[in-house]
Amino acid sequence: MMTLPISPAASALIARGLKLGGPASRMFAVLNPANGAHIADVADRSADDMHAAVARAGAAFPAWSARTAKERGAILRRWHGLVVDHADALAEVLTLEQGKPLAEARGEILFGANFIEWFAEEAKRVYGDIIPPHAPDKRCLVLKQPIGVVGAITPWNFPSGMMTRKVAPALAAGCTIVVKPAEDTPLSALALAVLAEDAGLPRNVMSVVTAAQASEVAGVLTASPDVRKLSFTGSTRVGKLLMRQCADTVKKLSLELGGNAPFIVFDDADLDAAVAGAMATKFRNAGQTCVSANRLYVQSGVMDAFARKYAEAVRALKIGDGFASGTQIGPLINAAAVEKVDGLVRDAIGKGALAVLGGGRHPHGGNFYQPTILTGVLPGMEIAGAEIFGPVAPITPFETEAEVIARANDTPYGLAAYFWSRDIGRVFRVAEALEYGMVGANEVLTSNEGAPFGGIKESGIGREGSRYGIEDFVEIKYLALGGI
Ligand code: ADP
């Protein structure tokens, strides 16, 4: 491995992760999105390898599920402790392969660790039920049992947090799990697996299978009758594909898919707070989150004031390498992502939208894109319906509450929505009317382990985190006792 701009602790974690990931006959390169530098070569696993991993997870299931919840929780707690202890090194690995600013990466590591801690505790609270019987000599019981082997496919935008949010509840419930991380960011997943092993998690209870091309190995996860559940975070396009593939085995599914989050500013809003919220939700992770504000609607009375303050804040953003101090926005994940975002912006401008700020690739070149504000975005433009996944904010004025609710809901997506108002009646009306799984009122959500994360409509199925998150990993068994 070449010398990397990271600490010896981070290099050591990468080296151990690569060893755990194993050598393979085929390898693929992981690149630093900030400069294209080669970081490492990772095993490019085949369908046969995935079959073997699923078989090993199946073999590990009886012993793991037979452990007490307290024992499983104790291992998760140790894993949590190790992730926190290694937060700095894990953050470096994350910034190196993903590009986000180092402080944000550290935030993601701790965010991800919180799920491990939470589900270490929740392991002990998977309660069943006793139902009043329908006859005197009968008893009705509900047992909750781990679902079995789980397949997880995780994305590159939160390679650490999205993995722990799936793995921790699965392990807590007594499932074993095979994780296929995104090809752009496998090192964070491997580093987490190293620490899980150090925490005493038995081999094969969790394994990480890396591959350059997702479809071949993922096809094994979806087709195998031994995989009882698939948990996926990624695009709606791939989510639909996986859902179809899972039909033949009637697999349980959790899907966290794309969003098209509206961000609504009413004329009674605290404008400074709304601007700060719009900055956080639009530009965190360079806009590459499924809950990023995708379209800003501002009531006409405050449009000018909001747009001026927002532009001022956006203009001050510092773009650069995630390791450089003060960087607020790093590069996009890869060249294809830049091309996609730029295509949406060019289409909009070509059809009459105005780039108030930015509007193209950043002078840094490579995968950097300028923070951009667009006005005059109309329904016929591609950007109006697409998930942008980049640092581009289209702002549109609106007149009435009814009009903006209709526009906000006019999408197949239903993940996150935000609005700003100080009128308590409106807060309830709008929160209830928005067809979304998560609504932030004077708040940009800041997802956390205790809250249910997930979408409705084409944004997904199921909830992650919170006490609901573990339910996705257990089966309900009705036990009817007679002859009492
Ligand atoms: P994005 O468009 O944000 O990269 P994707 O849905 O393509 O999101 O990727 C999310 C995860 O899905 C990654 O782990 C990726 O490797 C995986 N993936 C991509 N295409 C497929 C596919 N055809 N089958 C299964 N997994 C896939």
From TrEMBL:
Keyword Glycoprotein: no
Gene3D superfamilies, sorted: Aldehyde Dehydrogenase, Chain A, domain 1, Aldehyde Dehydrogenase, Chain A, domain 2
Family annotation (InterPro entries): Ald_DH/histidinol_DH, Ald_DH_C, Ald_DH_CS_GLU, Ald_DH_N, Aldehyde_DH_dom, Aldehyde_DH_Superfamily, Succ_semiAld_DH
PROSITE patterns: ALDEHYDE_DEHYDR_GLU
PANTHER family: SUCCINATE-SEMIALDEHYDE DEHYDROGENASE, MITOCHONDRIAL (PTHR43353:SF5)
Annotated family: Belongs to the aldehyde dehydrogenase family.
Protein name: Succinate-semialdehyde dehydrogenase/glutarate-semialdehyde dehydrogenase
Organism listed in the record: Sphingosinicella soli
